[in-house]
Amino acid sequence: MLQKKSSTFPAGILGGLFAAVLATAIMSFFLVFPPLALLLGCFMTLPIFIVAFGWGTTASIVSLITATIVLVFAQNLYIGLGFALLFFLPAVYGSWLLGLAETDKEGHTVQWYPLSSVIFLLTGFISIICVIIGTILHNNPTTPIIAGEVANFVANSLRETNSASEADIITFHDFLVTNIVPLLSSSLATYGVLFLIGNLYFSLVGAQRMKRLARPRDDWPKKFRLPIPALVIFIVAFGATFFELGTFLNLCASVFNTTFTLAISMTGLAYLHNLTRGMSGRIFILGFVYIALFTFVFTLPVSLILLLMGIWTTIQESRQRGETKQ
């Protein structure tokens, strides 16, 4: 990546401040106006990525440290470390991976690290982070108390709106209390994968337009693929969710199943973008898919179709690579 040593630290500090401001805004709007919080989440790690692409890995580490320190003092220790682990650290890791390249004896770039491998490693990295967070929550003595308060709040809300029978409310209450850690970990994993990859895409576009990107821009519809080990991890994790393997292994299965289901589905979406290129009705097809993903009735079938397309294109990509090597 491009780098100017004289401005590494100022750029890193500035990027960290911007990231901290966005994270603070997300926390402020999360309960007041959730849609705005979700929208801001699309750009939360954008400053760190831009700094990494423009001024190098050292500057992105400075941004990570700056943003974490600001959040610790502005919010609290747990929020600061949570944002650092779940968002800022994966952003630094992902930008570092995208900066890796093979060079010849004269120092000229020969081949950049593949986007497919970057997405795969980032997905695994976020999964591990969420498992660590889940393990910490499970061993925290205050977690059952907080889980009970959250479950009581949800149960009382259901009673006030008469949304379910008393027996169903009690069952749902007990389910929340018992499974709060895997549910929360999977939710964090979902948010982490979706918004980190979204931030990654927009930051690459922004860095290129700012002429701060040394890496050639990848054609995401063609290059957003996953290696076959991702499919293996998905199958193992999905199968493990049907068995009682103990608290830790069940947590791992839940998180890895969530993250790799999302990653493979996003691969299917990228394949659909590539497949519809040149079609006259491309806008209507993609528009329907995106609208359907946010519509309760069509979310499940469309998500399942994208997942199957992602599985198919992962297998096809693996076969093509094997034929190329032969």
UniProtKB/TrEMBL annotation:
Highest taxon of source: Bacteria
Keywords: Membrane, Transmembrane, Transmembrane helix
Signal sequence bounds: none
Transmembrane segments: 12-33, 45-71, 77-100, 112-137, 228-249, 255-272, 284-312
Protein name: Putative membrane protein (DUF2232)
Organism field: Bartonella apis
